[in-house]
């Protein structure tokens, strides 16, 4: 009896204990869920099973037949694959590296791995951008690359950073290169001697022809090898670096020429495959559209494709300022080692995380103190900017991308226009409606406008009566809107990272590529928008909803009708924010730059075929055991 009693008693106290623990967890959860807190203050040891920066979202997706719902599902499926395929140990990481690239990882990879893991890298494998950018350089001799990197530092629009003896010993002047030099200096202890030639212009610089690049890539493939005795060190004492006294080899001709003011696609098409639309394939524009848009409703289904100039170039050639009216644009057909912050699909610049991201400029840095909960934000689409994007003159300004966007979002301009959207009919099916008049919708929900005119020749007089200039908005004001549009200026947009970090939802149209593209999944982490903006109203009526206008006649209802999908928007915004705090952190900029410079260090090394990390990864078994790999994310929403 006694025994049974005490057993029951123990069980009771166990239950009490469990109940108490549950209550504590509930309580903590409540605190985290109900307060707006800066996620960084919540990295409590031992509480990693909480996901403090994000609440679990209550609600369900509309299980309807809208193409966006398929696009979201597909994005989630691809992202989950990405998430689950991450290497969980150094052994796995090096095995995957060799399998993917057919080479050993570069010298110093082991130290990089430890650095990355200590700085909580979320996906240690996703650096294909680096290897992709550097691949063609395997066809150029290391010494030639070194000499060219030295030579380029005396080219207009190129600045230099020089690493010697594990220090940045000198660099050119200007905020961009100073920012890069400071970042490189923080990593210099791990780096071999090198010259970094950095583009200081807004526009990318290197555009080799398609045929040249294909030849280079063939050479790269033919030189792949995994020698067992590779040395895990860079070669010392090589020549060909930048040398102030000896000067640079002036005989090396970078081959610069200006294409400013000329149709960019005339040159870009040479960098496209022979059977591509840009090269004059017989595809109709509609066929070309199908290569990156959903089969129904014309939403962007392949974001990479939407900025592939070989596909969209013919259509966009006179609709994006960079492509017909760049203020400066100096390029070369030679494969030169130029580091750049962004490029378009036909360029061969070597991408690094833009200097803007390293600065703590309040115009571009996210601060959660200035953000609002989703339910406290307004149902509006916001955009502010200046009239940049290209030189504007009286008879071209209306073709520039920003100008087109601002007019398309302007209710007065759209007063007599009709656009195509998807409307739900009485049988609950979505149908294309071609004659939707968007003016009222724009009046109710859009807050879009220029803050000032800029970049016109001879001056901006032709804008009189065209725009009403609006007050600029700081992030603290912008984040009151649920929907934030991000479109290009002269080049990529520096706000994009902050939009991801915020609790608002970013809509993005761009032709530029950046270091982070492979880790951002359209339809999971942001909403892609076509560079022609033909999907603007179908996107926004989907998220905000559209009610048939009031009519005397109850049946059939008058005008198109779209159910509201606010929850879907909130989910993408929350996923994006969560992801940015894992994959777009300040640490991620340095982790990327560090590996980039190791790979670059190898490419310029005379012994590049025989150096690299050749072990099986077991040296770091102990390290891996001490640094458990980050857990895969759980869905923010139930099934
Ligand atoms: C386009 O060209 C390909 C071969 O280059 C041909 O097979 C195809 O029928 C052509 N299509 C049209 C619509 O002319
Ligand atoms: C998306 O477009 C890119 C660029 O055109 C292409 O390489 C890629 O294969 C496409 N992806 C899919 C899934 O179709
Ligand atoms: C919208 O267009 C009208 C007519 O062109 C113009 O008067 C107005 O200033 C524009 N609004 C904005 C915000 O630019």
UniProtKB/TrEMBL annotation:
Identify the domain of life: Eukaryota
Q: Which SMART domains match?
A: CAP10 (SM00672)
**Organism source for this protein?**
Penicillium canariense
Q: In the UniProt record, does the keyword Phosphoprotein occur?
A: no
Q: Which residues form the Glycosyl transferase CAP10 domain?
A: 305-599
Q: What is the protein name for this chain?
A: Lipopolysaccharide-modifying protein
Q: Which residues cross the membrane?
A: 12-33
Cite the entry's keywords alphabetically.
Answer: Membrane, Transmembrane, Transmembrane helix
- For whether the record's keyword set contains Translocase, the answer is no
- Enumerate the InterPro entries for this protein: CAP10, O-Glucosyltr/Glycosyltrsf_90
């Amino acid at each position: 009896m006694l025994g049974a009693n005490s057993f029951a008693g123990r069980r009771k106290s166990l239950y009490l204990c469990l109940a108490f623990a549950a209550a504590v967890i509930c309580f903590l959860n409540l605190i985290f869920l109900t307060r707006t807190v800066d996620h960084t203050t919540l990295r409590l040891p031992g509480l990693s099973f909480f996901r403090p920066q994000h609440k679990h979202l209550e609600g369900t997706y509309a299980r309807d037949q809208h193409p966006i719902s398929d696009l979201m599902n597909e994005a989630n499926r691809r992202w989950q694959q990405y998430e689950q395929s991450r290497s969980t140990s150094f052994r796995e990481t090096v095995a995957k590296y060799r399998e993917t690239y057919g080479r050993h990882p570069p010298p110093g990879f082991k130290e990089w791995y430890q650095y990355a893991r200590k700085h909580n890298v979320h996906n240690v494998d996703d650096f294909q951008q680096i290897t992709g950018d550097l691949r063609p350089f395997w066809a150029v001799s290391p010494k030639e690359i070194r000499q060219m990197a030295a030579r380029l530092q005396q080219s207009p629009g190129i600045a230099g950073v020089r690493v010697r003896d594990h220090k940045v010993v000198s660099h050119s002047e200007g905020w961009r290169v100073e920012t890069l030099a400071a970042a490189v200096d923080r990593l210099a202890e791990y780096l071999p001697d090198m010259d970094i030639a950095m583009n200081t212009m807004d526009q990318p610089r290197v555009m080799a022809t398609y045929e040249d690049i294909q030849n280079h890539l063939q050479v790269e493939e033919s030189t792949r090898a995994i020698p067992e005795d590779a040395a895990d060190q860079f070669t010392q004492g090589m020549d060909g670096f930048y040398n102030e006294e000896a000067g640079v080899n002036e005989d090396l001709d970078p081959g610069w020429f200006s294409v400013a003011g000329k149709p960019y696609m005339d040159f870009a098409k040479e960098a496209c495959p022979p059977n591509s639309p840009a090269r004059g394939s017989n595809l109709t524009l509609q066929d070309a559209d199908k290569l990156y848009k959903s089969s129904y409703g014309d939403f962007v289904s392949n974001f990479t494709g939407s900025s592939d100039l070989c596909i969209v170039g013919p259509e966009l050639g006179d609709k994006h300022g960079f492509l017909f009216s760049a203020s400066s644009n100096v390029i070369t057909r030679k494969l030169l080692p130029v580091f750049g912050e962004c490029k378009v699909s036909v360029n061969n610049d070597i991408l690094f995380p833009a200097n803007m991201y390293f600065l703590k400029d309040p115009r571009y840095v996210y601060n959660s103190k200035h953000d609002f909960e989703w339910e406290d934000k307004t149902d509006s689409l916001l955009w502010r900017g200046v009239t940049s994007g290209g030189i504007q003159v009286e008879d071209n300004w209306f073709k520039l991308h920003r100008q087109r966007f601002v007019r398309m979002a302007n209710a007065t301009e759209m007063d007599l226009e009709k656009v195509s959207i998807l409307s739900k009919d009485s049988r609950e099916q979505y149908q294309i409606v071609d004659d939707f008049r968007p003016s009222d919708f724009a009046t109710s929900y859009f807050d879009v406008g220029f803050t000032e005119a800029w970049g016109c020749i001879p001056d901006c007089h032709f804008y009189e009566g065209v725009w009403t200039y609006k007050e600029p908005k700081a992030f603290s004001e912008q984040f009151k809107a649920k929907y934030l549009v991000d479109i290009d200026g002269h080049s990529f947009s520096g706000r994009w990272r902050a939009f991801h970090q915020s609790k608002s939802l970013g809509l993005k149209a761009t032709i530029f590529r950046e270091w982070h593209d492979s880790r951002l999944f359209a339809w999971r982490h942001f909403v892609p928008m076509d560079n022609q903006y033909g999907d603007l109203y179908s996107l926004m009526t989907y998220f905000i909803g559209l009610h048939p206008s009031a009519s005397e006649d109850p049946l059939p209802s008058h005008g198109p009708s779209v159910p509201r999908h606010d929850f879907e928007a909130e989910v993408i915004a929350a996923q994006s924010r969560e992801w940015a705090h894992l994959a777009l952190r300040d640490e991620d900029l340095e982790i990327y730059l560090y590996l980039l410079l190791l790979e670059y260090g190898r490419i310029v090394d005379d012994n590049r075929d025989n150096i690299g990390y050749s072990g099986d990864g077991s040296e770091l078994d102990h390290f891996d055991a001490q640094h458990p790999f980050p857990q895969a994310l759980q869905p923010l929403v139930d099934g």
